[in-house]
What we know:
The protein has 281 residues and is an alpha+beta fold.
Amino acid sequence: xxxxxxxxxxxxxxxxxxxxxxxxxxxxxxxxxxxxxxxxxxxxxxxxxxxxxxxxxxxxxxxxxxxxxxxxxxxxxxxxxxxxxxxxxxxxxxxxxxxxxxxxxxxxxxxxxxxxxxxxxxxxxxxxxxxxxxxxxxxxxxxxxxxxxxxxxxxxxxxxxxxxxxxxxxxxxxxxxxxxxxxxxxxxxxxxxxxxxxxxxxxxxxxxxxxxxxxxxxxxxxxxxxxxxxxxxxxxxxxxxxxxxxxxxxxxxxxxxxxxxxxxxxxxxxxxxxxxxxxxx
Length: 281
């Protein structure tokens, strides 16, 4: 268990209960767990589970091939056209909310992002998400950053009609919680103004991308375990998505000031016009 990429070896406490107990203790709090192992067999997929709820269409599974393991759990292939994310942890309901609320998912139709076609969740925690994705790209390191940023701007434009007003106090409290747990000090805080708004929660990560029509698309995923432990499940401004992508590109291939400026301009070219306001960036 402790050799799995998703096992929180760096933060789990010495006196933690075992995984099978249904919860493990970390230095940042308790992570609830469940018996995910049955999902790795084709037998489990032959009928829907009796507990929890399923939103979307249950897939027809011919095989369960493990494609990758990462900090969030497993990525598996179910058939030629579908993959699944299986997480051993209770990480909230970001994905099932998108599946349930059709205006959000319909707003993103035709854009460079894959939403789940089905989510199985229990007690408001997503356990398994299925995607229509014939080709998944894992661990790509040579990105066309400007193209990805432009696509991200289009996604944010589509979701902007569902934006909520600035919640500066909650965002600052979120940062204070992180600072308190990690014992660090933030030297710079993002600006807050009427142009800074919260969007429906999309967790995007360049570590996994879908390929469609020779173009790369984001895959809406579950939130990382450490973030779930440290932070409330708040909406965040679109700039937060962009900064995560910038960090990943920088780690993978390095970025200078010119590249960062180009990335920001590419995002702003498709994002809502108000996002380019000086007080928002």
